[in-house]
Amino acid sequence: MASFDRIPAQAKVQPTQFTVAIPDEKLDEMRQLLKLAKVAPETFEASQGPETYGVTREWLLNAKSELEKYDWKQTEQHINSFPNFKHSIKHGSDTLDIHFAALFSQKADAIPVTFLHGWPGSFMEFLPILDKLRTKYTADTLPYHVIVPSHPGYAFSSTVPLEREYGITHTADIFHQLMLDLGFANGYVVQGGDIGSRVARIMGKRYPDIVKGVHLNFCFMLEPEQCKGMELNQREQDGLVRWNAFRERGSAYAFEHSSRPSTIGFVLQASPLSLLAWVGEKFLTWVDKPLPLSTILDDIALYWLTETIAKSLYAYRTDYAFKQIGGHGNPDYKLPNFGYSSFPKELANIPKAWVETSGNLTFYKEHDQGGHFAALEQPELLLQDFTEYVHQVWEL
Questions:
Q1: 150: three-class secondary structure by DSSP
Q2: Where is the Epoxide hydrolase N-terminal domain positioned along the sequence (predicted)?
Q3: What is the 8-class DSSP label of residue 37?
Q4: Which of 99, 151, 367, 372 is catalytic?
Q5: Rounded to whole angstroms, how far apart are CA atoms 311 and 79?
Q6: What was the pLDDT predicted at 163?
């Protein structure tokens, strides 16, 4: 039986197989720093709940205790159960090593697809989807080539260049080149949420002859002028209440990332406890239903052990404004063909009519459960929507 790590025959390159192996010294250091880290005393704010003023002291104490006992080696083993690769990509004067997990098919007509993560996520967001696919199919029957890259500066990919500006437009070019190098010049489909949705939009707009379609589960935008005064149903009204609440009380982190990324980067990389509080809050408040604590700790550990939290903030500095390049409200980045999945507890669960202003919407599906981390919260639903959209656009 064929394996999922066999590179397609049409590939222009042979990426290097990669195995995650964090040294024991780094694990020992993380535990020691956690043990020595002090938790601030109880305050009124720290007892109110994460949606009000941030993580509670009770939650942080428990999460700290669990992270001290956390078994990264088990997580590492799970990551390594999937094929992982690294590939060097030339971009201008820079060469970046891009890490990606993948499931390669041996079917001649397999459809190439790529899933793009956001912040504070990682490629691990999509491991539940990869797991469902490898369980349902063999490499001989899998209908897709599935590529899940780590953004530059994240996880096991190279950091972005230090001597010049770098933004998500460059990431879009790099991921497109990755797909070309893997032999998918005849076309592929891209899926993205959070920052990944912006990268996906740029790829779809810049390379419409090769990117056959873009599927999004995030469409962060302000109210389009042509939608002002439009009547909204109850779901849409509820979505805008959540959207406005996030803008007013939940988005301070993003302004810090965009305006003072250096400062917050030093703070977060100085202590795994600081990282746990800062990132843990997002996994507590951006979801429909609570995620397992172990899932949150996986994410914290990955950022800490790869020392990438400070390196991951550049997208906010270069592209946080609502209508900058790649923003979903930017009229210059309307997509020729895209699909959208709406999850009720998304940070910006905006009305369908708003989404439609950002391109030619050919697929739309609403769900009654799920939040910002759809690939983790509802992998089955996201996968169903994406595969339906993929086959719709591939047959055009």
A1: coil
A2: 16-126
A3: P
A4: 372
A5: 21
A6: 85
CB 322 within 8 A of CB 263: no
- Distance between start and end Cα atoms, the chain: 32
* 194 is a catalytic site residue: yes
State the sign of the Cα–Cα–Cα–Cα dihedral 195, 368, 52, 373.
Answer: negative
What pTM value is reported for the model?
A: 0.96
Q: In sequence order, what DSSP letters do the residues of 241-260 get, joined into one string?
A: HHHHHIIIII-HHHHHHHH-
Catalytic-residue membership of 316: yes
Please list the rounded mean pLDDT of every run of 10 residues in the chain (396 residues).
88 96 97 96 92 94 97 98 97 91 97 98 98 98 98 97 89 97 98 96 97 96 91 94 91 91 97 98 96 98 98 84 65 95 94 97 98 98 98 88
The answer to whether 155 and 148 have CB atoms below 8 angstroms apart is: no
Which residue type is seen at 395? E
Which of the residues 173, 181, 194, 298 is marked catalytic? 194
pLDDT tens by residue, 207-248: 999 999 999 999 988 899 999 989 999 999 999 999 999 989
**372 a catalytic residue:** yes
> Which residue in 316, 333, 340, 389 is the catalytic one?
316
Contact 115, 129 (CB under 8 A): yes
Tell me how crowded residue 90 is: count the other CB atoms within 10 A of its CB. Answer: 10
> SS3 for 135?
helix
Whole-angstrom distance, CA of residue 323 vs CA of residue 314? 17
What's the token pair of residue 320? Answer: 């946080």
Kindly list the domain boundaries of the chain, sorted by start residue: 74-394
**What counts of helices (H) and strands (E) characterise the chain?**
15, 9
